[in-house]
Amino acid sequence: MSLSRRQVTAAALAAVPLTLAAAPAPKGGRTLYIAGDSTAAQKYADAAPETGWGMALPFFLHKDLTVANHAVNGRSSKSFVDEGRLAAILSVIRPGDLLLIQFAHNDEKATDPARYTEPWTTYQDHLRLYVDGARARGARPVLATPVERRRFDAGGNALPTHGDYPAAMRALARDEGVALLDIQTLSLALWQRLGVEETKTYFNWTATEQDNTHFNPPGAIAVARLVARELLRTRVLAPRDVRRLDDEIPTSWITWPEATA
Questions:
Q1: What pTM was estimated for this model as a whole?
Q2: 248 by DSSP, 3-state: which?
Q3: Distance between CA 170 and CA 179 in Å, rounded?
Q4: What is d(CA 41, CA 256) in angstroms, rounded to the nearest whole number?
Q5: Cβ contacts of residue 102 below 8 Å, gap of 6+?
Q6: DSSP string spanning 62-114?
Q7: Which of 105, 163, 221, 259 has its CA at a distance of 20 to 30 angstroms from the CA of residue 170?
């Protein structure tokens, strides 16, 4: 399957209201846009303590680099496009801005045709829309492999859960010459170091819920730190663009605003 810009435009015209999308970034300086799913998304008061890593990323970036978090719960690389959310970003992104792209959690849902993509064909096809769209506007695309879920075998080994999607993204990054943040590999290694019990304090485990996909404030901060370090390692950002990479970040810095219509 090969998708055209016309299909993106058509999707935008048919989009559902983007009530949860981030507002356009203020003028001046550069903006880092996040296109992704619930693991990165802004959470609101009714979801606390669930926290997307995109909420913590600004703690590691200097203030002249604005984060515009357009990640939304439940979206795949396909449904994000079909709902016009990519088009919304591309309508405001400017030369010199960054578009950070992380999908796979919902692309994997083979029983849902609205979201499912196949790793080596339609997943890569959709990711190219983000890459090409950013480049056409003078912005820089950055691919991020999906952060890992919390899953261990009986021997306490952290297990990968994303099948071929990370490998497909890595291959696309090589083919297209796009910077790659390998968050899947780094997060899997982090969960392994922390172990079965301690990882529970990084995920959204509460008295009523045992969520092994989404993060609480410590987990979101830890993953955002991985993202910021990778942005520096890959030279997407310069040392002057990042801060606090080795500092303790208070979880009190995370806040959950009330959702607005």
A1: 0.89
A2: coil
A3: 10
A4: 12
A5: 34, 35, 36, 37, 39, 40, 71, 143, 144, 145, 146, 147, 183
A6: -TTEEEEE---TT--HHHHHHTTHHHHHHTT--TT-EEEEE--TTTT-TT-TT
A7: 221
